[in-house]
Amino acid sequence: MFYIGKALRLSDADFARLASAYGIEEAALRAVAEVEARGEGFYSSGALVCLYEPHIAYKYTSGSIRNALVLAGLAYEKWGTKPYPKSSLPNIDRCAKIAGEEVAAKSTSWGLGQIMGFNYPALGQPSAVAMVKWFAESEGNQLEGMVLFIKSNPAMLTALKAKDWAGFAKRYNGSAYAKNKYDTKLAAAYAKWSKKVATAPAPPPVTVPVSPAPPPAPLPVEQSPAVSPPPLPTQPQPSPLAALIQFFTSLFTKKA
């Protein structure tokens, strides 16, 4: 089914990551998640939390397909015509068989923020089914979907960043927000999370390995001064007289 994925649960790292990525105070983001989001984004079966809306299915169909949905009790013109069933999953499956998965996805609210499938363009998704599959991967994706939905309304995003809870609740919940005290609930949740986030222990410092210092350069070895070899003894040269005597001696020796 297109509404079943990895079903990863929400983590503190998701809040920190999204708050940093979208420039929203983490305590404010946690307050919105606490008040406006469901407690969980997945059923115990792993299926994405959802609520099928027959009046939306009626709006997004026509002709024979709409007639088939009406006959099956899966579409009607006005909200509240019939009570909601205990589980929406069977109706989603039946709608998908009659009108296709895209109509079923558009006609249902999904995940932590219960975002209607027809809002997929505001979340940067190519289709309602693609949005649902993205939500089915993790509650972190569902929370990011809420942030993107808020971001698509600049006035709503401005109110959130300014902690204007009445202005935010009016745009997120409609004009009847005060009746359900959404603004006061958001303010109280923000006050609580401001203290918790401020006192949260800092992550342990990252130890950066230090490269060992290079070994010291070897000390230069003192060389002994070069000793020149002693000069070879020179043969004494004979005197002129001795040379003359030697000449005559050799001459007479040869004649004898």
Automatic annotation (TrEMBL):
Pfam families: Muramidase (PF11860)
Start-end of Pro residues biased regions: 209-219, 227-238
N-acetylmuramidase domain ranges (all copies): 26-193
InterPro entries: Muramidase (IPR024408)
Region annotated Disordered, chain positions: 209-238
UniProt-recorded name of the protein: N-acetylmuramidase family protein
Provenance organism: Phyllobacterium pellucidum
